């Protein structure tokens, strides 16, 4: 059997294993999914008029604020879903299954590839569910073309891949599942410090660089532009650079941790 055939076979096996785990233990994914859904309902129905009035110059428009806030919450959904990946990887490391895999004649990177592919599929599923809730409460993307919809989907997949590799590294570096969950919390907190809920220029001057120079803000602005048909400026190039950089960093970190001798 060739190396490529072995890699594909073992990666597909590990992918099925992770999807079975997600199906048998859905509570973690559902708990993480509830965060963006609850924030969506909170900001639209409780704070929507006030927030839209602040952004729109004094005129409340809840429907306009739905359009503004949904792209950020879709990317926040990806960040929250990948926390489950960090926990799952940490569980594998601490419960001994990784040690068992090390003794078997399998393609070793397939263990991590299975986690990454499974997480990306869960992220896409979670985004679809949150998007369905957004559509149910009034979100519409009438100005986006088919090409822009395709680009938006590609952006979500690339961003999910980048964050998943980082989450895998966090899981491998954590001594237990609780530590993995805590170390991955910035993946939920960073969207709260971005342009997801309010424009960067409305923030205090000292805080604007924190919101601007992080991966979520250019990703949100790009997705917002694609879905609403507005200009994205240089945010597309910035989010592409962030995705590539985080993917490479997460891959190198994860493989180095995975291939190191167990202590």
Detailed description of the structure:
By secondary structure, the chain is an all-alpha fold. It contains twelve helices and no strands. The chain has helices at 3-24, 27-46, 48-55, 62-95, 97-102, 109-136, 146-173, 177-183, 186-192, 208-212, 216-228, 235-259. Helix 2 (27-46) runs antiparallel to helix 4, helix 2 (27-46) runs parallel beside helix 6 (109-136) and helix 3 (48-55) crosses helix 4. The longest helix is centred in the N-terminal third of the chain and has 34 residues, at 62-95.
Outline of this structure?
By secondary structure, this protein is mainly α.
Biggest sheet descriptor: none
Rounded to an integer, what's the Rg over CA atoms?
19 Å
Shape: elongated
Distance between the termini: 32 Å
Strand % is under 5%
Uncertain residue segments: none
The count of DSSP E runs of length 2 or more, i.e. the number of strands, is 0
N to C succession of SSEs = HHHHHHHHHHHH
Secondary-structure class? mainly alpha
Helix content: over 70%
Keywords, please?
mainly alpha; elongated; about 0% strand; about 260 residues
